[in-house]
């Protein structure tokens, strides 16, 4: 399904912990919104719009997608659930930021997905486990696959209307 995405902000200001990865690779973060044709509900995307000069996507050939499913009449998480998602992301960034890049986050239609690109699956999973070791259980699924050309990210970016 092809989505029409509309860029709604040229830059997104991040908290200190989320900025740790941005400081190493991402120049500008942005948001975009897609309205689902069937439901009329929106999906909100936060994505790395531009990277620092010299950044090589080939250094991060593995795509890791974390999926958090929830139930909501509106398709968006409750305030408490969103705060838990943000807390988990902050914990992850403090650990995995040195070995991966958070490239895309989508929220809507009863799911949040974080798309990371990592150097290796083993290293990412080890750091993820370290980051979440003392945290409450977060209901996430983890999907990892090679994506050396960043097809998932590039496919998303090509659909953003600026």
UniProtKB/TrEMBL annotation:
Lineage: superkingdom: Bacteria
Entries under InterPro entries matching the protein: DUF695
Signal peptide (from-to): 1-22
Pfam families: DUF695 (PF05117)
Domain DUF695 residue range list: 35-156
Keywords annotated in UniProt: Signal
Protein name: DUF695 domain-containing protein
Source species of the chain: Vogesella facilis
Organism phylogeny: Bacteria, Pseudomonadati, Pseudomonadota, Betaproteobacteria, Neisseriales
